[in-house]
Amino acid sequence: MKYVQIDPKNLGHEEKLLQPLLRTTPAFYWTILILFILVGWGFYAYSVQVRRGLGVTGLNQPVYWGFYIVDFVFFIGISHAGTLISAILRATQAEWRRPITRSAEAITVLVLLIGGIQPIIDLGRPDRVLNVLRTPNLRSPLLWDVISISAYLTCSSIYLWIPLIPDIAILKQRVPRFRWLYSLLSAGWKGTEEQWRKLGKAISIMMVIIIPIAVSVHTVVSWVFAMTVQPFWHSTIFGPFFVAGAIFSGIAAIIVAMAIIRKVYHLEDYLKPVHFSNLGILLLVMSAIWLYFVIAEHLTSYYGAEPAEMTILWDKLFGRYAPVFWTMVIANFIIPVALLSFRKTRTVPGTVIASISVIIGMWLERYQIVVPTLVNPRLPYPRGLYFPSWVEWSILVGSFSIFILFYVLFTKFFPIISIWEVREGKELGIEETLERLKLYQPEEGELTRPGLPGLHLKKE
Amino acid sequence: MPLWGMIIDLDKCTACRACIIACKVENNIPISSPQTVREHRVINWLEMVLFPEEGREEHPWKVRILPRPCFHCDKPPCIKVCPVFATYKNEEGIVAQIYPRCIGCRYCMNNCPYNVKKFNWFEPHWPETMKQCFNPDVSVRPRGVVEKCTFCHHRLIKAEEMAKAEGRELQDGDYLPACVQACPAGAMYFGDLNDPNSQVYHLSRSPRVFRLLEDMGTEPKVLYLTEEKSE
Hints:
The complex is a heterodimer.
Chain A: H1 15-22, H2 26-52, H3 67-78, H4 82-91, H5 101-121, H6 131-134, H7 141-161, H8 165-174, H9 179-185, H10 193-226, H11 238-264, H12 273-304, H13 307-317, H14 322-340, H15 348-375, H16 390-413, H17 419-440
Helix pairs in contact in A: 2-16, 3-5, 3-11, 3-15, 4-5, 4-10, 5-7, 5-16, 7-10, 8-9, 10-11, 11-12, 11-15, 12-14, 12-15, 14-15
Chain B: E1 4-9, H1 18-26, H2 34-38, E2 47-52, E3 63-68, H3 77-81, E4 87-89, E5 95-97, H4 107-110, E6 118-119, E7 146-147, H5 153-165, H6 178-182, E8 188-192, H7 199-203, E9 209-210, E10 222-225
């Protein structure tokens, strides 16, 4: 078996990938400080909510769920970035994946922590959250969420860690800080042939396991809504609709993260325009799929013309939620399609603008799934509108900030672009790909087929 | 097993709201301030629901008024979704809420097509003088849990104990929720829908009977008798 030989003392060009861990600029500390303040503000807002009750939010009768559940769905959606994309790209042996996978997988794990905590923030009695383990009702979709999200968190953490092992072994020798942490996480990696073989096998197993789990997670999140009897929630399309939306917002998140990493750590030679362009094409495809689902969902409701559904549909299309709805359509479809369809605009800035637009659009999409249904219940009474309070805004900002904070810290502890995978691509990938390409070509041999009478194509 | 149910005769109902007050006092429901009303956070286990009448373009002021308690559905959608079994249907068909177990996720409220469940957004509040007059049979709910009409279940326990002490079976009329007892127009009836000797058994077979959102398949155990159409 062929495997990469890496000398930790001399990484050659890949030294660049270690620089973020070895050198820290004042800008880093400023970023951390600002993020800390925002996170602290979020914590303060939550402490107010815990002290005074959920009444400090804008929630009311009948809008029982608001920002926290929107954020929950949104963040869990972003988490599909990583693991699913990196697993699919690995499984299809896409060579251009190599500098992307690590940053994508890190997004998954960190954002899952933030997303998973949102329903707990939403609880009226967070002190009793462990009741879901003491007296679990397996019929409740919320419990399915607990199960599938913890499975996803476990598997994606393992899937982040396993491909990190050879890199951690490098860090153990090169980074002066946290030796104990690195030697614990490197799990006795020596780089023998046996270890490389096992590593390859472990990655293959995890990437196969992770794909169905990732799909199930967002399906189950959608079922929290789809299993109820509420108009516009009780929809069979919700599972695939949510999964598609999740992958959509996930790709956008990777592109934005990559662009920032590229700029801040000067990794332009690793994250090249071609990576952005390729992810941009994926984003474009997902944008089209997203529009297809939106049309399928809304047109069937319109044609069926059930009064309870029509009230909500009208409210979304032309009523109080029309600004949200149409902004969402522009942000999720018109802007990305306009930018990504043409090679001229499918540049780094072009894909980044499209991605930011998609992130905003997908958040609005989650908002207009959750809120308009609750505002228009089946019975004409009670009626209430929903205006999020400062507490909810602060927790939203805090949640985003804590995710960015964790991500920034991750890049300081681990190389955000996989050193060994990039090296492997250089040393073995090109050769392997060439051999694979040869396999696809037609065999050039005898053109006769003796077994089939009448099909003798004898050479002249 | 008895199947406890309520029948509300809309022809008799004057919408005086005595039932709401009786319910509030009986069940230690906090008093709402104008602020709570503005915020749409009033807690009432029994409410008056205003339905616009058909043909409301001509007569927008014409409404139908329905007193709405919890319907204690025989197939309650709310109990399925509770992650911690804090809401369940007991063997007498009453849909109950366990306040000390509820985690306040409000999923049951979202899955109730009638929106009858209420949430304690803040610590419940009473004027100082009223704190002397709590009903000792009903627990006061803390902040952050879901609550709802119980058909005055505590009264059932009392009625059963009384019947046992007197050495007899529970009779029709022994167990009445506070709203039914208070109704001055006699528009509300309560009893065992399975007992052929009870008043509600006969009323439930009236051709005037309808149930709210009957096609949802929730099988509500609060039945309405329609009013005569007045032109």
